[in-house]
Structure formats: C-alpha cells, structure tokens
Amino acid sequence: xxxxxxxxxxxxxxxxxxxxxxxxxxxxxxxxxxxxxxxxxxxxxxxxxxxxxxxxxxxxxxxxxxxxxxxxxxxxxxxxxxxxxxxxxxxxxxxxxxxxxxxxxxxxxxxxxxxxxxxxxxxxxxxxxxxxxxxxxxxxxxxxxxxxxxxxxxxxxxxxxxxxxxxxxxxxxxxxxxxxxxxxxxxxxxxxxxxxxxxxxxxxxxxxxxxxxxxxxxxxxxxxxxxxxxxxxxxxxxxxxxxxxxxxxxxxxxxxxxxxxxxxxxxxxxxxxxxxxxxxxxxxxxxxxxxxxxxxxxxxxxxxxxxxxxxxxxxxxxxxxxxxxxxxxxxxxxxxxxxxxxxxxxxxxxxxxxxxxxxxxxxxxxxxxxxxxxxxxxxxxxxxxxxxxxxxxxxxxxxxxxxxxxxxxxxxxxxxxxxxxxxxxxxxxxxxxxxxxxxxxxxxxxxxxxxxxxxxxxxxxxxxxxxxxxxxxxxxxxxxxxxxxxxxxxxxxxxxxxxxxxxxxxxxxxxxxxxxxxxxxxxxx
Length: 525
Prior knowledge:
Strand content: 15-25%
Structural class: alpha/beta
Shape: elongated
Helix content: 40-55%
C-alpha cells in the first residue's frame, strides 16, 4: 500500500474543539485520573480502541501491519492497537525500538496484556533488522515518541525515523508524528512524516503552525473520555471554529428587518493605481449582508468602483495625505464600522490620515493591507483610541509589525498574535492556512477553512469587506471575526468542491460570488 499525498486536512472529532500545548494535555490527563476517577490504563485502552476503530477504515486484512512502539504512553497506545488488530484477524508485527526496562507503568500493563494473548513482540536491535521488517510491511503504525518530545532525536531512534520516511509505507501516527514537538516555537530535528495522524482528545498546537503541519498529513481526533470539567479547569490555549460554531453564533435576520438594522459600513481606500482593492471589499461587504455601504476614495476611482459595485454610495476624498476635516470626521462617525487601508498606498504622509481616523472616531475600525504599514508608525508613537481596532495581517505584515521574520511568525503564530493583541489592545486576525484570531484579552480562535485558491491578490480585500459586515452585525467582535473567516474560507472550498472552479483559476471576485453557497449550505440546511 502506497502512502497518501501530504495535503494537510484536519477533521474535528467528538464534541471537543480545543487546541492544547503538551503541558495542557498532561494536565487534562491528570485531572481525568485524579478528579474524574479514570484509571490511566483505562484512558490508554480508550485511546487505543478509538484509534483502532478509525484505523481499520484505512487498511485491509491483506495488509501486513508493523506497529512500531517506543517507551511511554505512546508505545502503550500502540500495544492496545496491536491487540485489537490481532483479535480481529489482521497480520501484525509489533516492533519495539527501546529496551524492555523502558516500558513501564500503564504501557507495561498493556504490553503484558498483548503478550498474554499469545502475541509476540520483536525487539529491534539494528538498522538492518528494522529495514528488513519494513520491507515486508504494507502499513506502519508510528507509536514511538509522544507529545513531550523537544530537541535532538537520539540514536538509534533517529536512524529508525529516517528509515520510516524512506520506506514509502502508509504511515499512521498515534497522537502526534514521532519527533514533532506539541508546542509552537520548538526546534525540529527528525520527524516521522505521517500520512494520517490520529490525535488524542484535542489538536496539538504544533499542528496549526505552518512550519510543523506538513508532517501531520490528515489529522483525525479521537475522544477518550476526558470529562468536560477538566477542560473548564485547564482552559486550553485556543479553540477551533467549526461549522457548528458558525451556525450557533450567526445572527439570524428578522422578518421585519430593514437596511439600517443590518449595518451601515464605510470602506476607505483605493488610490488611482489600485481601485480594485476598495471595489472588492465593497462588493464583499454587501454580498455578506451589509445593509448600507459607502466607499470613501479619490475622485479618479468613483466611476470605476461604481461600475463594479452600483449598490454602494460614495464619499470623495481629495487624496489620502490631506487630513480629513471636521465635517468628514463627523460623517465617518455616523457609520457602524469602518475598514481602511485596501489599495491606499504607502506614502508616508498617509500615516497622519489613518491616525486622524483612528483617534477621532470611535466606531469599530478594521485596518488591512497598506493601512497596516501606516498603523505601525501609530503603534510606535502610542495608540490613542476609545473604540475597538481590528488588524488583519498576513505573515509578512505580521513580521513587519512585530519586527521579526516570516519564519519566526510561522513558528510562533499563537504567542506573537497574543503578545501583539494584549500589548496594544487589538483584535488580531493572522491570516494563513490556519487563521488565528486573537482578542485583546488573549483569547484565541482558529479558522482552518479555505484552500490554496485563496493565495491570490485581492482575496485579503474580500476578507476585509466580509469582516466589516460581520463586525457590524454581531454583538461580540471575536465570534464576528471567526464567522467572517469561515464565510471567506468556505466560499473558496465550495467553489472547488462543487466543480465551478479549481484552485488554479479561482480569483478574488469569485470568492465574493461564492458567499451565497455558504449561506445556503450552512444556515438554511
């Protein structure tokens, strides 16, 4: 059996939608055993049996399965899985990579249970021996190293991981690919490249870091019975925003609602060289359901934007370098939300314009694209504003704002987002395959909708327009932002899955046109 392609796909299992660090997962286990009264051997049994139920959908009884175990709980899970496979007629070899004295506690209990049923465990003592067993196998179950791994992988495990990665076997990792740290920001050495990862209870933080996620393959979650009360006590680092989250939190439109009740939004942007940015944002805001929308732009753009978005009204600005007068500020203050920066340009003199809007209005203000470059100067001089600020950087813009590198942002997206949000009292939407949304108090949500079709110019402008509408229509900003990211990503997904486009040809305006499919699929079903 050949291994799957390494397209990353994440599937939520059970009712828990949490993202945890290694420390948080250990604490959840401890609370389940101490306060929930669940024996550790039972938790291990639950994990192994639940993973077995998923694993059998991927293999057949014609396959020769190598279950490769190390020490610790990860190896214990492997013994449980091997026992279930044997009991149900599969051809299994358990290959133990560590000395017998390294198998302790609950893992030892399940090893002995496996062997008392008449099953053999093979101790691997050399590279050639391990390579020979891999040559005879079709499927490999990776139960070598668990969630506590960090730093250099020692021999002989290092060599064994290299052999696994060179084997071309279908590779199924238990809880986490061996060698991959659970937490963001850690050093990577040698990591098993899994086709499927069956993770226990909650997603590990590293799964959502771009530098680490490529090792995970398809990720499926199994529930092992940790009580909900344990999650209340631990308060995991973040939550995943799912289709159920979207349905349950999305504000329904009343039968007698009117346009003024559905949000009066303002988009400021689009210089004479980039009129499309403001137009895309305006179209997206209206298609997402804004009741009224106005575009404040330079005179050269009114005709262009009006042709593409006739439903909007306009306010003409001489340019983005002259400070807005009192009447303009008074007008802008009448809106329910403002989005600024799309296609504005990066002339230094525009920073004062954004600062004036920021300090002299108090309605929710979303800053994107070119606006973020001007916002950095405002950050450095001190932000003076009563109303909420939302920023929507991609990795490059986040690196600029935090004065670090793109690679560092990819390695530490949760920590950098939280630090920025808490320090400057911001809502931060860090855009990527897994978009991390952070509130000023540090609370974090993750939206992992979307596909590579979104890697096109203009899709960020579309997201800004959608988010503007969501901010105006929701009572709380954090779920509003999560729902906006969901709409944006799901539009891209449905356009491809319904056969209307491919990831190669879809463009930003298609994402706008795809929003009705999302509403019909997830709100009217």
